[in-house]
């Protein structure tokens, strides 16, 4: 039996797997002849776009509900290594580590939350980048209403200047935060989020602290305050944007009850993570991919979604997944032709 393996149960991975199943059907090739397996870290397809909704349950679709009806197998686990020459990969699961072989492989493992090296960032600072984190934030908001009034009480500080940051500040206003502040390291003119959203947020009472960047988060189990550096914009960097530079002796302390970071996403270092040093990446860390075929530099290894584009959009992930399945179809058609000739 031959095998198509897809890594990642996001939009790109799902579309690649389901697209391949459809093509298999179209070529009259059964699951016994070629199997399709999707490997994902957990049992859910996570719809991150709906993390801000009050009920997060709908944002998690059980993968089996979608995969079972079209005969796609699922393995819950993470990839430890890929050996492209042997066409084998190792999966770490809850109770065992398993090595499987593949004929065609699709990498669709998305992008990962950006974690700059700021002291105290990992503990009591929240984000809405994954469903689990959004749920943790909801639980924390529920505890705030029980706290007595004090300096910084019910103050929310959001860090970042993109669309997610704008969602967070405006949602915080709607959830009755006493004061909502947005820290952004550049100025209003150089903010990535939509100018209309900024104007709406200002109208709703959000205070923007431009040209500022957190240096340190203080507080053990709960945030108490943050140390902030003032920033000045220097010469343009390699991206052409003015580089934020810390102003000397400009630190100030900002009291807060809650900090939400919305700093964006980076591609994971897949060659390192998958111990597959031959896998080539671009200067942005995304996988080098031929956008006509979705094939990486490794033969038979395709890629789709955020892992080739950086943090992007659902429509692109879907498109890439479909394109990868079209490339797999060429291979399936060859198989189907061989079958017909042999008959
Ligand atoms: C908060 C937020 C809001 C967004 N809002 C919008 C929006 O409004 N509109 C829009 O179009 N886009 C939005 N996006 C972007 C959109 O969600 C992504 O572009 C899209 O999900 C990318 O799809 P993907 O399949 O490439 O990756 P993902 O959806 O990230 O899926 C990757 C999957 O791979 C799994 N995985 C990762 N590593 C491994 C591993 N080693 N082994 C096994 N499995 C692994 C993960 O568990 C995950 O299930 C938003 C993103 C975020 C975070």
Description of the structure:
- It contains eight helices and 22 strands.
- The protein has about 350 residues and is an alpha/beta fold.
- The protein folds into two domains: about 1-110 and about 265-340, FAD/NAD(P)-binding domain; about 115-265, FAD/NAD(P)-binding domain (3-Layer(bba) Sandwich), CATH 3.50.50.60.
- The strands form seven sheets. It has a five-stranded parallel beta sheet with strand order 5-2-1-9-22.
- Helix 1 runs parallel beside helix 8 (about 315-340) and helix 4 (about 165-175) runs parallel beside helix 5.
- The radius of gyration is 23 Å and the shape is elongated.
- Flavin-adenine dinucleotide binds near residues 109 and 317.
